[in-house]
Amino acid sequence: MTAKLETAPFDPRFPNQNVTRYCYQSYIDYHRCQKKRGSNYEPCNYFKKVFTSMCPNAWVEKWNDQIEGGTFPGRI
């Protein structure tokens, strides 16, 4: 079994090497997409693929906990 490894494509909104904002924005976009379109809407998975490849796991876990607890600082 072979696995195909990919990373997020270039996004001209984030031209620098620091990908923190790209990570955070993709996380927000994924949750906004799911909220608006539903959890079964396939194009939302693009944002999930991006944030899972760009964001540290600890950040994602923290943000998920904050969303569940109602303390997430972003607007979703």
Structure description:
The mean pLDDT is 90. Helices cover 55% and strands 0% of the residues. The protein has 76 residues and is an all-alpha fold. The protein has a domain at 20-69: Arc Repressor Mutant, subunit A, CATH 1.10.10.140. α1 (20-37) packs antiparallel against α2.
| Quaternary assembly | single chain
- Number of E strands: 0
CATH class of one domain reads Mainly Alpha
The poorly predicted ranges are: none
What is the rounded distance between the termini?
A: 38 Å
Helix content: 55-70%
What is the CATH topology assignment of one domain? Arc Repressor Mutant, subunit A
Shape: globular
User: How would you characterize the largest beta sheet?
Assistant: none
Mean pLDDT: 90
The CATH homology group name of one domain: Cytochrome c oxidase, subunit VIb
Bin the strand percentage: under 5%
Structural class: mainly alpha
Calculate Rg over CA atoms: 13 Å
Helices and strands, in order, run as: HHH
CATH architecture of one domain: Orthogonal Bundle
Compute the number of helices: 3
Summarize the SSE layout with pairings.
Elements: H1 20-37, H2 44-54, H3 57-69
